[in-house]
Design a protein that fits this description.
Layout: H1 7-15, H2 23-43, H3 55-81, H4 84-90, H5 97-126, H6 129-138, H7 144-169, H8 175-201
Helix pairs in contact: 2-3, 2-7, 3-5, 4-5, 5-7, 5-8, 6-7, 6-8, 7-8
Length: 205
Amino acid sequence: MLKDMNLQDFLNQTASNEPVPGGGSVAALSSALASSLAAMVANLTVGKKNYEDVSDEMVIIAEQMIAFKSEFVELIDKDASSFDGVMKAFKLPKDTDEEKAERTRQIQAGMKYAASVPLEVAKKTSELFDSIEVLVVKGNQNAQTDALVAGMMARTAILSALYNVKMNLGSIKDEAFVESVGAEVKKLEKLAVEREQKVLSLSSL
């Protein structure tokens, strides 16, 4: 499993001619890094002089970010395997009209699932911004740059994941599904850019 690799092995496999990990898994990794950095800033604030008033709030944020990190780590592998159903469906027999119809049905179902995983990454990552903004303003100012990087990584993760969604939408024939998910993609793209700008605007640097 990708999540169990050491860093060097993960990077080497990413650089190889293997199809996974690809952009979707790297997007989930970016989300995990964003939440990890946010947790670090919170933990560097807890119990520190001049930050006593926000210590309890930082404990809560740290716990939330660690929970997010665990979810994103799972999504690294989930994304890597999300296209498996499509590949299996392409190998199904297509000798009769019935077989062709079933093959097409399974391919389309697989495509929808493959689009749903990076969409999940994007949605979940969008939930990090509120806490990151708090960390920039209230967190240990010696670690403010780490909170800013967390915001930038979150934005990158969302936009990266959404490109994978859009790629899959191009192969889906269900127009209502494409329209609905496409609208979500546009909304999340706009949110990612705006929230990153908000995070950076709060910096004292």
